[in-house]
Every structure is written in C-alpha cells, then in structure tokens.
Amino acid sequence: MQNIVILISGGGSNMAAIARTAQQQDWAGRHGIRVVAVISNQADAKGLGLARAQGIATEVLDHKGFASREAFDAELARVIDHHEPSLVVLAGFMRILTPGFVAHYAGRLVNIHPSLLPAFTGLHTHQRAIDAGCKFAGCTVHLVTAELDVGPILDQAVVPVLAGDTADSLAARVLTQEHLIYPRAVLAQLLRIA
Ligand code: GAR
C-alpha cells in the first residue's frame, strides 16, 4: 500500500480532484494507492467538508497555537507520519515550511504552484503575469525543496492569457488545468518511488 496525505488551507479543489481521480481510476485496486488523510492548518477550510464527503479522514492543526515555525512543523510531521505516507501532497497549503520539515520528506513532498515556474514564485502570480504582459500562463507541479517554489519540475500546463483577463478569470482558467495535471503527477511520482 502507498498512502497519500494531502495538506490544504482553503478551497481544496486540487485535493478533491486528486481524490476523485483516485476513485475513478481505481488507484487502490490497480496500484495499492489511497488518499488516507487531509490535514488543514485552517479550521474553516472549505476543503475539509469536501474531504469528509469523499469519506477521507480529516484533521486540523492550527499554526496559531504554536510558538515557532519549527514547533508547528514538528507537530505537523508527527500528525502526518501517523498515516505512514509514501507521498505528502501540498494542495493550496499556504505555509512556508522549515528546512527540517522539507528534508524529512525529501523526494516525497510535492506542490502545485499557479505559474509557469521558474517565473513568478510566491504570491499573486496571476496579476503579476497580466502586469508583465505575458501571453501565456499556467501551473507547475514540483518536488518541494528548501527554497520556496524552486524544486525539480514534475509537470506543467499552459493556458493563454486573454485580452481583458483579470486575476480571477486567469486563475479560474489555470485552476481547470491544475485539476488535470496534479492527479497525473501524483500518480506518476508514486509509481516512480514505489
Ligand atoms: C491553487 O491555485 C494552487 O495552485 C495555489 O492555491 C490554489 C489552491 O486552490 N497554491 C499556491 O498558491 C501555493 N503557493 P485549491 O485549495 O482549490 O486547491
């Protein structure tokens, strides 16, 4: 068995896309792969309800209760490791992770970022792409390393930037592609490390 643990902070649509694809493609029966838990640092994350609706165990670990980033990440790793994950999937998990946490999950920690990396690391990627006059935007799945949004690229998708696009309209176009490439990249990475 290969267990997936997914970390979210908000809407959880990428998490739901992975869980839905796992079900539709019978990852459990064909590959022994299961989404075993969804963990949020925000108690009110909408994605928690989506996870429960798909029968996935959920946990909340609020970072505000911890004195330091290191203390939160240590407890987060303890909660995650309880599920014995082969892969930890960041899906809109809006926390900068400590080097110790990242090292602990080397090769089995993936993220999706809403830009064509290495362009536009960090926040507000869609507005920055529009402001820069980009004709194309997109999303990237990458392995997480100590530096933010910089690890080896596993998959990407490209969308056009259209005249009149706002950050919201571009984000929606990109998100549709995120839901296609993230499940595919997660499965590929799990088969690679199996
Ligand atoms: C997604 O667009 C994801 O790429 C982005 O947050 C959104 C989460 O949506 N992640 C980042 O910006 C990470 N730096 P979701 O909760 O509906 O999956």
- Compounds present? glycinamide ribonucleotide
Strand content: 15-25%
Percent helix range:
40-55%
Radius of gyration, whole Å: 16 Å
- Tell me the quaternary state: single chain
- The strand count comes to 7
* Count of DSSP H/I helices: 7
- Going by CATH, the homologous superfamily would be Formyl transferase, N-terminal domain
Outline the structure in words:
This protein has a 7-stranded mixed sheet with strand order 3-2-1-4-5-6-7. The protein is built from 7 helices and 7 strands. The chain has one domain (2-193): Formyl transferase, N-terminal domain (Rossmann fold). The longest helix is centred in the C-terminal third of the chain and has 27 residues, at 167-193. The chain is α/β, with parallel strands linked by helices. Helix content is 40%, strand content 24%. It has helices at residues 13-24, 27-31, 46-53, 69-81, 99-104, 125-131, 167-193, and strands spanning 2-8, 33-40, 57-60, 85-90, 109-113, 136-143, 153-160. Bound molecules: glycinamide ribonucleotide. Glycinamide ribonucleotide is lined by residues 8, 10-14, 47, 91-92, 112-114, 139, 175, 178.
